[in-house]
Amino acid sequence: MLNIVLFGPPGAGKGTQAAKLIEKYNLVHLSTGDILRGELAAKSTLGLEAKKYMDKGELVPDDVVIGMIEVKLDQNASANGFIFDGFPRTKAQAGALDKLLEKKKTAISIMAALEVEKQELINRLMGRGKVSGRADDQDISIIENRIAVYNRETAPVIDYYSVLKKFRPVNGMGSIEEIFGRLCITIDQENKKK
Ligand code: AMP
Predict the structure, then answer these.
(1) 146 lines ligand 1 (CB under 6 A)
(2) Which residue of 10, 39, 92, 163 lies most exposed, with the fewest beta carbons within 10 A?
(3) For residue 57, how far is its CA from the centre of ligand 1 (angstroms)?
(4) Where are the chain's structural domains?
(5) How far is CA 115 from CA 11, 121, 129, 164, in A?
(6) What is the reported pTM?
């Protein structure tokens, strides 16, 4: 199986690139942000609870998102592999993901980490907010908080995968096609080793 953690700060282009990668490599896309927005749209208890955190740009508690991923892994038992987008966002989530994959006799292949300058992140998020209508993309103070939360709570996940020799930095500046090309080179290098 090819299991990729597509990593990076908010606005790095994870969702855009994940959509292209699942086509090329025949993988299942698991985005915790998308799943949470789906729960919110359905007005489920989980969605309404998560909204309190999402509206402020804070992280939803680990046990909630880990439980969601567990359900999705079970629902896609015959998948060729997964692209994890926006998950794991804490070291605790990374550890829990390893345990879930171990139960399925598989593991993370690599963490492809998109690197983008802060001003470019803000420009992309504000631009997306105008089109998507996402409240957390339209308010500069929420955007700033999401980037701060990323630096404080999520960036340490890089250490987790570095120790396992799975961390692969990828330049996330440039056009969508340029960045996609870089990601494919990184993934193909990994595939060749198998
Ligand atoms: P995203 O679509 O990945 O930008 O996520 C939007 C919001 O959903 C985040 O700001 C968090 O409030 C919440 N969220 C998404 N994924 C996670 C996660 N893995 N852990 C905690 N909160 C998350």
Answers:
(1) yes
(2) 163
(3) 8
(4) 2-193
(5) 10, 10, 21, 20
(6) 0.96
